[in-house]
Design goal:
The structure holds two protein chains of two kinds. Chain A is mainly alpha-helical. Helices cover 58% and strands 12% of the residues of chain A. The relative contact order of chain B is 0.08. The chains are: A mainly alpha, B mainly alpha.
Chain lengths: 101, 163
């Protein structure tokens, strides 16, 4: 069965986007308490967009302001993938507890 | 050509003993003034005149070099620099797809510029330079990572195709 897989960075991005709604890449880095790095956040976001977990909209800018910024938001698939991962993590934590107990 | 002449003159001048500088200045001044008979010194030979003219030119070259150096030092803080990330963006457009260049490098450059201008606004020039260097390295690494990812994807597809 082909199911969506999430890396640690992707899970963190989804967590932040679900909690705060739309965010810029730099905001994600600042809110992640060091879990996301400036150099790699856009590479991760680009791959997540390819997988359909996040979507982005180009900000409108006046000429001369430099490259236009993108604002990122989570998609329905991203929310489901994150919830599934959370559920699996909780289930595993429960199993671990039962095993230890 | 001018630089070559200056360097040659410097080499000639270096060979001149310090004691003969006064005599050289005296001869040169009198040549420039166009005297027919040298005053206050023994009449120099033709070879000596050529030698001292070369020495005079060497002195001019040294003074000119010193003035240029002083001028450069004074104006070194006033160099006009391009916007940070401009070259990176053009390089990314060449190396990556337009989409990747805009979404990965373009966004990182926008962040770098924001931080850079914030630092400049509060007068922290050194910090601004540091941000420029640090972000350029980071973005360069992100470009390399993207290319590696693309190569990996291609190899994976190729392996699947073969098997």
């Amino acid at each position: 069965m082909d199911y969506p897989k999430l890396s640690g960075k992707e899970a963190e991005i989804l967590r932040l986007l679900i909690a705060k709604g739309e965010m810029y890449g730099l905001e994600l880095v600042k809110s992640s308490n060091g879990q996301l790095k400036r150099g790699t956040v856009y590479v991760t976001l680009d791959r997540m967009e390819d997988k359909g977990f996040v979507s982005s909209v180009r900000e409108e800018v006046t000429p001369g302001d430099g490259p236009p910024r993108r604002i990122y938001s989570v998609t329905g698939l991203g929310v489901r993938a994150y919830r599934a991962m959370e559920y699996a993590a909780r289930a595993f934590a429960g199993l671990e507890g039962a095993w230890v107990g | 050509m001018g630089r070559l002449i200056s360097r040659s003159l410097i080499l000639v001048g270096c060979a001149v003993p310090l004691g003969s500088i006064t005599r050289a200045v005296s001869i040169n001044v009198q040549i420039v003034l166009g005297v027919r008979k040298f005053v206050g010194i023994d009449s120099p030979s033709a070879g000596e005149i050529t030698y001292y003219v070369a020495l005079g030119l060497f002195e001019i070259a040294v003074v000119k070099a010193a003035l240029t150096m002083i001028h450069r030092t004074r104006t070194s803080n006033q160099r006009i620099q391009g916007l940070p990330g401009t070259r990176l963006l053009s390089l990314a457009v060449w190396l990556l797809s337009a989409r990747e260049a805009e979404r990965i490098v373009g966004q990182a450059v926008a962040d770098m510029r924001e931080e850079y201008f914030e630092a400049l606004f509060v007068g922290r020039h050194r910090k601004a330079q540091w941000i420029r260097v640090r972000c350029t390295i980071r973005i360069g690494l992100a470009v390399v990572e993207t290319i590696w990812h693309r190569v990996g994807k291609f190899l994976l597809g190729f392996t699947k195709l073969i098997s």
